[in-house]
Amino acid sequence: MKLMKSIVLIVLMSGFLFSCVQEKEGTFEKAGKKVDQKVEKVKDTAKELKEEVEDEIDDHTKDGNG
Q: How many angstroms separate the CA atoms of 10 and 2, rounded?
């Protein structure tokens, strides 16, 4: 599970850094939109990870008490 979180974090950070590099070519408005998009992706990914962790906890809790 730690490996998956690390991979997701690396991918998100890479995407963010990539968008920052491209900022030099665009306007501040374009950069702002890109940041907004990245933030939304991070929120979605965090929500998915939370759900996966909750599912794993539920699965292990059921296994331990069943």
A: 12
Compute the distance between CA of residue 44 and CA of residue 20 in angstroms, rounded to an integer. Answer: 20
Say how far apart CA 41 and CA 46 lie, in whole Å: 8
pLDDT tens for each residue of 18-49: 766 554 566 888 888 999 999 999 999 999 99
d(CA 44, CA 36): 12
Alpha helices in 1-66 (DSSP H): 2-23, 28-65
**How far is CA 7 from each of CA 29, 44, 62, 64, rounded to the nearest angstrom?**
30, 15, 28, 29
Lookup result for tokens 């998915």: 48
User: Global pTM?
Assistant: 0.48
